[in-house]
């Protein structure tokens, strides 16, 4: 006969941190529902990064004897209004229970405890429809006297796995071909190298958190911009805490020795979670994020074939190609009042939802603004070392290098941005800079300078190259040289 669970509401770190091993173990036992966001490790990283929100934590926990059996991690928005913990840091929410098919009586006990605590309004967004715990919790809330409004919102994105990596590649052969094309294109510029972190038994033994500085650097050079607080501290802490559990995986993909993409993954039970992909936006022409994604798949499958690859809720170019399953997420809005109060609450929900949407739109963006273009420098045609300017042959290497240096989507898009009569020149041998020059106009002392790509570091070598360019153009120049992200390896 099942033991009647006892309930405790955990509010202080000293209440719930000793339970972390049992809490994390519950997440692992969920089978295909296993989730990083259900773990005490995740909650602790959030609490460290958002202490003001964590001070309002109300973790409703069910125990069978001394054993933790289920948790509903909530925060108090008021004395009688509670909601899911960690919003803004997590893409979905669910009760923490054990087993692929959770026991309904545990979720009913959690719901009944909320009523006993005097909760009158409960907001639980983004619960997975595919998880039987969602339906069991909804049923438990209704049995506890709550009126529950249920609505669908965003969708999940994942792929069940039935074969090894070779079979997986056959199932996604179009994506695999795309990766092969970008891999071959990138190899014109140098060798690809994938470093992996956090894999048990690797010869290097490097923990996932050791990749964080490289991940942060690539993040800053991508379309997302620099990681800012509190997300910066949160992700670093999450890697450290999950690393001790053996869950964290990280990848850094370099081209010609330069980090070009980085990924964070987590392995929770049989589920592999592709958590974050970042890439150097200047290298869009060779799509290092696509190459990194597939190579990470190969490494994850080589460790142990997962039951599910979880790409997290949302849309995106990679998700749309790799995610075969998109079940909805639902929001449960539960109220517990008399008939009149419940009717008023139901009528107010659309207004609250609309107000929340407007607030999100009005909220300042947390992403850093795009990096400002370098300030132009005044370059005088002063005497200096005799650096020759020679026409640059636009072979496939040079075209791709220039496309990457300019942050163009492809060499073709780059060429479309040029003016008729433009040509590229090498300054020095080996070249210290590359310059795109226009045709010499009638009466002009020299050609107009369209753009400059610096190959040498700032200093005398680059200054000499720019002075030689000014002498060739026959004029004082105002230039903002762009630093090439990759080393020039042509002759």
Provide a compact summary of the structure:
By secondary structure, the protein is an alpha+beta fold. Helices cover 35% and strands 25% of the residues.
Q: Would you write up a description of this structure?
A:
The protein is α+β, with helices and mostly antiparallel strands and 491 residues long. It contains 16 helices and 21 strands. The chain has three domains: 181 residues, Aminopeptidase, CATH 3.40.630.30; 143 residues, Aminopeptidase (3-Layer(aba) Sandwich), CATH 3.40.630; 107 residues, no CATH class. Helices cover 35% and strands 25% of the residues. Strands 1, 2, 3, 4, 5, 6, 7 and 14 form an eight-stranded mixed beta sheet that branches. α3 runs antiparallel to α10 and α8 packs across α11. It is elongated and about 90 Å long.
Which helices and strands appear, and what pairs or packs with what?
Layout: E1 6-10, H1 13-16, H2 20-28, H3 40-49, H4 51-54, E2 57-64, E3 67-76, E4 81-84, E5 96-97, H5 104-116, E6 121-128, H6 132-143, E7 147-155, E8 158-160, H7 165-171, H8 173-186, E9 192-197, H9 212-220, H10 231-245, E10 248-255, E11 258-268, E12 271-279, H11 288-303, E13 308-310, H12 317-322, E14 328-335, H13 339-362, E15 377-379, E16 389-391, H14 396-405, H15 411-416, E17 423-427, E18 433-437, E19 449-454, H16 460-473, E20 477-479, E21 482-483
Parallel strand pairs: 4-6, 12-13, 19-21
Antiparallel strand pairs: 1-2, 2-3, 3-4, 3-5, 6-14, 7-14, 8-13, 9-10, 10-11, 11-12, 15-20, 16-17, 17-18, 18-19
């Amino acid at each position: 006969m099942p033991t009647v669970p006892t309930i405790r509401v955990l509010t202080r770190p000293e209440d719930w941190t000793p339970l972390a091993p049992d809490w994390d173990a519950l997440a692992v036992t969920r089978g295909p529902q296993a989730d990083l966001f259900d773990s005490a490790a995740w909650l602790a990283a959030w609490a460290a990064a958002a202490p003001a929100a964590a001070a309002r934590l109300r973790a409703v926990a069910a125990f069978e004897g001394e054993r933790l059996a289920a948790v509903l991690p909530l925060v108090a928005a008021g004395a009688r209004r509670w909601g899911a913990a960690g919003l803004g840091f997590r893409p979905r929410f669910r009760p923490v229970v054990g087993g692929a098919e959770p026991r309904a009586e545990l979720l009913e006990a959690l719901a009944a405890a909320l009523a006993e605590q005097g909760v009158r309004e409960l907001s639980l967004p983004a619960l997975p429809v595919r998880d039987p715990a969602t339906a069991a919790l909804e049923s438990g809330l209704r049995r506890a006297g709550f009126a529950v409004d249920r609505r669908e919102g965003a969708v999940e994105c994942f792929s069940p796995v039935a074969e090894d990596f070779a079979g997986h590649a056959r199932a996604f052969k179009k994506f695999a071909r795309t990766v092969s094309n970008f891999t071959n294109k990138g190899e014109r510029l140098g060798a690809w190298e994938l470093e992996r972190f956090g894999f048990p038994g690797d010869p290097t033994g490097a923990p996932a958190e050791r990749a964080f500085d490289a991940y942060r650097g690539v993040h800053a050079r991508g379309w997302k911009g620099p990681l800012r607080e509190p997300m910066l501290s949160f992700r670093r802490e999450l890697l450290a805490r999950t690393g001790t559990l053996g869950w964290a995986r990280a990848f850094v993909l370099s081209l010609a020795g330069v980090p070009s993409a980085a990924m964070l993954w987590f392995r929770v039970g049989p589920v592999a979670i592709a958590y974050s992909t970042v890439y150097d936006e200047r290298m869009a022409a060779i799509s290092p994020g696509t190459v990194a994604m597939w190579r990470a798949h190969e490494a994850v499958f080589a460790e142990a074939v997962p039951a599910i690859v979880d790409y997290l809720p949302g849309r995106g170019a990679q998700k749309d190609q790799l995610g075969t399953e998109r079940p909805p997420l639902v929001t449960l809005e539960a109220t517990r009042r008399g008939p009149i109060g419940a009717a008023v609450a139901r009528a107010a929900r659309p207004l609250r939802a609309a107000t929340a949407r407007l607030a999100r739109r009005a909220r300042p963006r947390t992403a850093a603004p795009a990096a400002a273009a370098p300030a132009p420098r005044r370059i005088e045609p002063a005497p200096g070392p005799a650096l020759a300017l020679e026409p640059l042959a636009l072979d496939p290497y040079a075209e791709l290098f220039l496309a990457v240096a300019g942050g163009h989507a492809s060499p073709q898009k780059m060429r479309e941005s040029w003016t008729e009569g433009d040509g590229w020149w090498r300054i020095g041998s080996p070249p210290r800079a590359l310059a795109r020059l226009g045709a010499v106009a009638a009466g002009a002392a020299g050609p107009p300078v369209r753009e400059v790509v610096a190959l040498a570091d700032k200093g005398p070598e680059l200054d000499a190259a720019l002075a030689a360019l000014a002498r060739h153009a026959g004029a004082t120049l105002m230039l903002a040289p762009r630093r090439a992200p990759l080393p020039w390896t042509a002759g």
